[in-house]
Amino acid sequence: MPSLQTALPPELANNVIRLYRECLRRAKFIGQRQYNTELVVDMVRQQFKKHMHETDPEKIQKLKDDAARGLINHILYESEKMTGRKFSKSS
């Protein structure tokens, strides 16, 4: 299965620290809009800390793909709100 990270810039997708920082930025943005910044940021931090000692390359790739999927979904959601146009198919 191809990696979802190809939808993100390589400098972000290939670097876990940069991916973490971007996830935190998005969490702060979402939290400010929903008035629960601390809760959303803590959720992101907990997920990264929970897996910080993972050594299995396949598991690491899956975790990075999951984080990338979350970022992509949020970017699409915000784009749809701004343009009023649907980018994803709904079932």
TrEMBL record:
CDD domains: Complex1_LYR_SF. InterPro entries: Complex1_LYR_dom. Coiled coil: none annotated. It comes from Nyssa sinensis. Residues 16-69 form the Complex 1 LYR protein domain. It comes from the Eukaryota. This is Complex 1 LYR protein domain-containing protein.
